[in-house]
Amino acid sequence: MPDDNPIGHIQSIEIEQEMRDSFLEYAMSVIVARALPDVRDGLKPVHRRILYSMWDSGIRPGSPYRKCARVVGDVMGWFHPHSNDAIYDALVRLGQDFSSRYPLVQPQGNFGTVDDPPAAMRYTECRLASIAGHLLEGIDERTPDTTVVDFDDNYSGERQEPVVLPARFPNLLVNGSTGIAVGMATNIPPHNLSEVIDAVLHAIANPKATAEDLMEFVKGPDFPTGAYIVGTRGLKDALLTGRGSVKMRAVTEVVELRKKRIAIIVTEIPYQVSIDRIMQKIANLVKEKTIVGISEIRNETNREGIRIVIELKRDANPQVIENLLYKHTQLEENFAVNAVALVDGVPRTLNLGEMVHYYIEHQLDVIRRRTEIRLQKAENRAHIVEGLLIALDNIDEVVRIIRGSADTDEARASLIERFELSEEQANHILDMPLRRLTALETDKLREEHAELLAKIKEFKAILKSDKKQRELIAGELTEIKEKFGDRRRSRIIPDSGDLSLEDLIADDDLVVTVSSAGYVKSVLASTYRIQGRGGRGVKGANLREDDVVTHLLHTSAHAYLLFFTNRGKVYRIRAHELPRKDRTAKGVLVHSVLALEPDERIEAIVDTRDYETSNFLVMFTKTGQVKKTRFSDYDSRTSSLIAIKLQGGDEVVAVRTTNGSNDVLMFTTNGQGIRFSEQDARPMGRDTQGVRGIKLRDGDHVVAAATVDEGDDILLVTSGGYGKRTKMADFPKQKRGGMGVKAIKLTRVRGQLVAARAVSKGDEIFVTSSDGIVIRQTVDKVSRQGRAATGVKVMNLEKGATVTAVALVPEENGEVG
Questions:
Q1: 634 is catalytic
Q2: Which of 215-229, 353-367, 505-519, 778-792 has the lowest mean pLDDT?
Q3: Which whole-number Å values give the CA distances from 749 to 87, 184, 487, 529, 725, in the listed order?
Q4: How distant, in Å, are the alpha carbons of 48, 101, 268, 493, 688 from that of 98?
Q5: DSSP state of 243
Q6: pTM higher than 0.85
Q7: By three-state DSSP, how is residue 230 classified?
Q8: Where are the strands (E) in 79-150, listed by range?
Q9: Which of 621, 517, 526, 609 is nearest to 564 (CA)?
Q10: Annotated active-site residue in 52, 123, 228, 722
């Protein structure tokens, strides 16, 4: 067989090896050239090419808008030989404020919504956003030998494109990135610009700063759609390891649309979640009867923001419905963080510290290159100016040499020889216009020369000093933060058992109020200033005309609140979990924070820190029953418990904490009071009825109760705004079950007894009226009188208003203001 093969050279290869090599080559091409962002500028190639093409075409911040079709055409024609749809999709995402935390493209026209696609690119327009200019800032600075960033040939070899952008702010963390490559993916959430820059500034000053150190500044993701981030465990994993699951939850509010018609309003949704999918899922859950109690759902979202209205049936429990919605729909969703980015062309999973330090290294490289370029330009210009100054200082001789030369080449050679000039200096002298011969122009050249020398000195100092380079980066980052920094949109809230309260919530003094219509709120106690007896008070709440404040408690943010209801149940919640509102705010429906039945209302509130400060809880009912139960029986993780067994429409009116051997007092609306030992009432379980505490006359009922150790006096306040202090000793001790004695003399003007509290000298009280007015005053201003007295004016009331509640502020917690 001859050596020459008639059909050419054939090489034998292993098919498996060829498939493996070809697939790896393809995979790396997708990873490096399409799907993963660069750690330095946080951009994938398509995004980098879009931004650079717009910059190169003059479609910059402040310039006129240009058709998106033109931008897509330029990008596809020069830099990105892929589908125009892929380019337009990437361009649109850069301009959507619900996709990018800090949009890099400023849109004009229909760029779509969370659910709707954008208009065709022939209709929409765009230009670079102002913040995008800082990603490209300085990219045009170059010399024949040096560029600020590396450039490479485009796919056709006709032009060059940047390998990476200068990126004057850490875009990878600020805007995040999402991409699916071959065999790997990235999913980096956006973060708050101010927090990220603060972290970078700390790392610049402390090169050995770790991810743990930087977590002091970066609290977690900050999604463009806001919503809640629940818990910190996933946040810590993501920031410390580059992988973690962040739980996102929609922001909801329970509101009363009309009388006895309640709705759950969704105003913020998790990142990358569709409103249409949420509504369709809820509709299916209602149809399948997985969720019962929703009567209607509608989407009222508009340009002002997201608004999904979930209207409930009359007997539905809002809190139960909310929990079911979180469980079964995307109103609660997880964001799987997988922080993969290219480091020197190699994909790596990065934590917060690594991303920040790689960014700083890139900035140091940009600063050095930029400074070298500016130094070279300054030195070149200084060299030319020095030549011009030599010519001006010897202008007569220069003119003589030029006039005596046969041509330009001879003149150039003569000038170089005579004054030891470079060829470039000689050329500029020959090109110098006559106007430069004036004294003013000469002075300008000397000033320019001095400035150039100063710049050259400064540039050399920067290049020699790592500290100066870092200070320069810090200064530029600080300017960007001041210009574009804003508050977080995503609020981080604790998950059950995730963080201690002391780590999250300040232990502020609070005033908790509940109205007859079921609105609850907490207000900082310091917002109510002390007034004298008979003052008019300050506005406490903008209530409805038929609503009044019925319960008012002074407590602290870390305390547990036990809400006792008219139906004999008790609900537990931390004080800080109540919505904190302004002093004049109405509050929110208590059903949105407690799982109350539709016809259930709050009748008493008790606060505690550890269930060990008191031995017993004593409950008093409207019909005169009294029941004592160990306080520890209520220390349960269950959110609601049976507190007392009620008979015949009876209701709980007061609850007091005791030590087991106190005397207790009960007071009725007709002004009767009885004092007896709590030892007369043996301890009982929670689900019991209790025993008789006071015998009532027809038409009378119990309105308040107190214990002897709570104070030296009993403060009694009537619905007409009158009150008095009576010594505790003035109430004789009796056996349980009697009719008691007269506690206050009532008249038509004074009205009925509405409150009775044990007080001591120096204590302060809040007195609330039916029209929402609250007055804060010391009890010392209220006269001490005997049991038969009628009392003095404690609050001036508007016509038709009555006193509805009195709460005590202990002296050690009071704030004079």
A1: no
A2: 505-519
A3: 79, 80, 54, 28, 19
A4: 20, 7, 11, 21, 55
A5: E
A6: no
A7: strand
A8: 105-108, 125-128
A9: 621
A10: 123
